[in-house]
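Lab notebook, design round three. We kept the backbone fixed and only want residue identities now. Task for the bench partner: fill in a sequence for the structure below.
Input C-alpha cells:
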C-alpha cells in the first residue's frame, strides 16, 4: 500500500484483498466509492461493511492512507460473533501508526499526477454547428442564434469547460518516544483539480496518537 499513491484508503484496498469489491459511484475530482465484502447481501438495506478504526467505528474516508499501519478484513461468521448484527456485512479493522521509543523520526511522502482525456471525440465548432443547422432547417434559427452567427464570434465551449487534471498530495509526520511516552503526529494536504473546469477538491487531515504507559 505504501508503494502506490492513493487518494483515500478505499482506493488503497481495491484489488488488494480477496473478496473485497470497490465500486466508484460518481466521477469528478473526488470520486465517491462504495465497498462490499463477498458481494451484495441485501437488495434494499445497506451493504456497507462496519469500519473500526483503532477500536472506534468510523469511515475509511476519514483515514489518511499514510497513517495506516495495517488493515484486516473479517468476512465470515467471525465478524458477527464479535460485532453482532453490525458485522453482518463484514468488518474492516484499521490500525493507525504509533510512535516508537527512540529518536524522533521525520517522514515526508507526496505525489503529483496529471490527467488528460484519451480518445476525445471530434465535435463541431460553433460555426460548423450553425451552418449544419441552417442546411437542415433554415427557419429554425432563433433571433439570438442568428445574432451570434452574424457576428462571427463563436465560443469554444469544449475548450472552456475541459482542462488537464492534476492531483497532488503532501504528507509530513513526526514520530518517536521517550520513557513511557510514545507519539505520532502527521498532517496531510490533498489537492485535486478535475478534468472539468471548477471541479476542485481540497482536503486537509491531521492525526495525533499519544500513548502514555
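Proposed sequence:
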Amino acid at each position: 500500500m505504501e508503494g502506490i499513491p492513493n487518494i483515500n484508503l478505499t482506493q488503497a484496498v481495491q484489488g488488494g484483498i480477496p473478496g473485497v469489491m470497490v465500486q466508484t459511484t460518481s466521477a469528478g475530482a473526488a470520486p465517491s466509492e462504495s465497498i462490499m465484502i463477498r458481494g451484495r447481501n441485501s437488495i434494499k438495506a445497506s451493504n456497507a461493511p462496519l469500519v473500526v478504526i483503532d477500536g472506534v467505528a468510523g469511515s475509511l474516508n476519514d483515514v489518511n492512507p499514510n497513517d495506516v499501519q495495517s488493515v484486516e478484513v473479517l468476512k465470515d461468521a467471525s465478524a458477527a460473533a464479535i460485532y453482532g448484527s453490525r458485522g453482518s456485512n463484514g468488518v474492516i479493522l484499521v490500525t493507525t501508526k504509533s510512535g516508537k521509543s527512540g529518536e524522533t523520526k521525520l517522514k515526508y511522502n507526496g505525489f503529483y499526477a496529471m490527467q488528460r482525456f484519451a480518445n476525445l471525440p471530434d465535435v463541431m465548432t460553433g460555426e460548423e454547428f450553425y451552418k449544419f443547422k441552417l442546411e437542415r432547417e433554415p427557419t429554425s434559427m432563433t433571433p439570438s442564434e442568428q445574432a451570434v452567427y452574424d457576428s462571427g464570434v463563436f465560443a469554444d465551449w469544449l475548450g472552456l469547460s475541459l482542462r488537464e487534471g492534476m492531483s497532488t498530495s503532501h504528507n509530513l509526520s513526526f514520530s518517536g518516544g521517550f520513557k513511557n511516552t510514545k507519539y505520532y503526529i502527521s498532517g496531510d494536504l490533498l489537492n485535486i483539480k478535475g478534468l472539468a473546469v471548477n471541479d476542485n477538491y481540497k482536503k486537509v487531515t491531521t492525526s495525533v496518537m499519544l500513548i502514555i504507559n
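Keep this in mind before ordering anything: The chain has a mean pLDDT of 82.
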